[in-house]
Amino acid sequence: MTISLLVVEPDQTVRDQLRAQLQMSQIAMSVLYSAAQLMNRLELECPSAILIRAEAPMQGERDALRRLRQAGYEMPVFVLSKSDEVVDKIVLFELGADDYIVDPVDLHELTARIRRAVQRANRTLCDAPEMREKISFGDYEIDFATRRLIRNGAEIALRSSEFALLKLFARNPMRLLTRPMVNSQLGRSESQNNSLDVAVCRLRTVIEDNPSSPKFIQTLRGRGFMFVPSPKQNEERPVIVRDRDSRGCAASALHLLQTAGLA
Prior knowledge:
Distance between the termini: 23 Å
Number of helices: 9
Order of helices and strands: EHEHEHEHEHEEEEHHHEEH
Pfam family, one: Trans_reg_C
Structural class: alpha/beta
Number of domains: 2
Keywords: DNA-binding, Phosphoprotein, Transcription, Transcription regulation, Two-component regulatory system
Shape: elongated
Oligomer: single chain
Organism: Paraburkholderia kirstenboschensis
Radius of gyration: 20 Å
Protein name: Response regulator transcription factor
InterPro entries: CheY-like_superfamily, OmpR/PhoB-type_DNA-bd, Sig_transdc_resp-reg_C-effctor, Sig_transdc_resp-reg_receiver, WalR-like, WH-like_DNA-bd_sf
């Protein structure tokens, strides 16, 4: 599994030290200098985890963390700070931080914490039942607690990988999900784009009346995918341009499977 870490750190020396350690731990690192730009950056990439440098008064970091969680992003967030004040820790935990690390920290320990948190987050996303409200789209209903897809009272059989993909889409309605975002959230490497095409194609075959002209899982050419849970009849579909991922999905599924070594 490829882990990507977005590091919000203004100090170049610290960034260089982190990069060297992360490379040895096979964790890819991208950089942002200020938490104020975090939400804009997440429109371009969806890292496995985020590490934010926060120093008093931490207002910018608090605002960024609040907006991130309100927007529905659920990746692990680590806060690194020289402050050992309990009130700082409590406030950031309440805003959605997963871990608060007092600097200086041993970089081996830091990378171990990151790896463990990402593994746990991916396992929760893909495998664990969730006590959350059911989601309906079209004639379908997703039961997160029992991990079932139901249509008009009948259960629809899904592979575990298909359910994980559907759950990711359903939890992010009307939001652009780029290929790197999907791969990262499902714990896949970016080199697995071809097998992602296969997974999307399989899922469309299950839930779409016409997989070649999908209503629910729509493709934005050159950008990624968007889940549209309730397309209205006779309404023009928003911002959708078919490309090779949606055109002739059913007809090309076997070719994709063969290419990916799955058939």
